[in-house]
């Protein structure tokens, strides 16, 4: 019986979404758009203030046109109801274009087009998600202030675990559980105590 449950769970977590949240549509900029992404003036100080006002965590996601890994996240991971709902309820997500020209104001006050901000921050790959704390020093850049960075495309379990780990502030020094240990524990819990 346990093996049947494992097989069913594996199928559910690996099958593209059949029911629930629709996959994101492509915007005019060639990037996928979800209902939980915020269209802002991209002043990160204002975005952080608004996120805090809503009781949510600020997350910045860099993507680019034609990115197969971004497409994978938007077609297979983000549409999962448990992932999409968790992000929508707990995060204020601002999308940035790795090659875009829209001006972004960093926490340190510097204003640059998205593509130059990506270079300033040393971002090379998409998708990359930066998770920010509730308070950021005036002289800090977003990567310096980030409590976690999620580079690349991951499945639903890993993605949900990362968003949950950040939201629960498990990155804090006194939490005693880094992301890898947290994620391994969550996998065992999802598999009813089995590590395989």
Automatic annotation (TrEMBL):
Residue stretches making up the Thioredoxin-like fold domain: 51-134
Keywords of the record: Signal
Cleavable signal peptide: 1-23
Pfam families reported for this sequence: Thioredoxin_2 (PF13098)
Entry-linked InterPro entries: SoxW, Thioredoxin-like_fold, Thioredoxin-like_sf
SUPFAM superfamilies with a match to the protein in the record: Thioredoxin-like
Protein name, UniProt field: Thioredoxin
């Amino acid at each position: 019986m346990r093996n049947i449950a494992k097989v069913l769970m594996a199928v559910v977590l690996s099958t593209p979404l059949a029911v629930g949240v629709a996959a994101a549509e492509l915007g005019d900029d060639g990037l996928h758009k979800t209902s939980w992404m915020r269209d802002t003036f991209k002043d990160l100080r204002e975005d952080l203030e608004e996120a805090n006002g809503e009781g949510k965590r600020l997350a910045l996601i860099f993507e680019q046109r034609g990115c197969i890994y971004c497409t994978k996240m938007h077609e297979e991971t983000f549409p999962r109801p448990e992932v999409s709902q968790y992000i929508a309820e707990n995060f204020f997500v601002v999308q940035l274009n790795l090659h875009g020209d829209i001006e972004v104001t960093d926490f340190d006050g510097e204003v640059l087009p998205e593509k130059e901000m990506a270079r300033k921050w040393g971002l090379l790959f998409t998708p990359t998600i930066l998770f920010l704390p509730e308070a950021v020093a005036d002289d800090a850049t977003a990567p310096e202030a980030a409590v976690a960075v999620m580079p690349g495309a991951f499945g639903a379990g890993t993605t949900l675990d990362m968003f949950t780990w950040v939201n629960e502030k498990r990155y804090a020094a006194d939490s005693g559980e880094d992301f890898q240990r947290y994620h391994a524990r969550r996998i065992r819990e999802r598999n009813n105590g089995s590590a395989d």
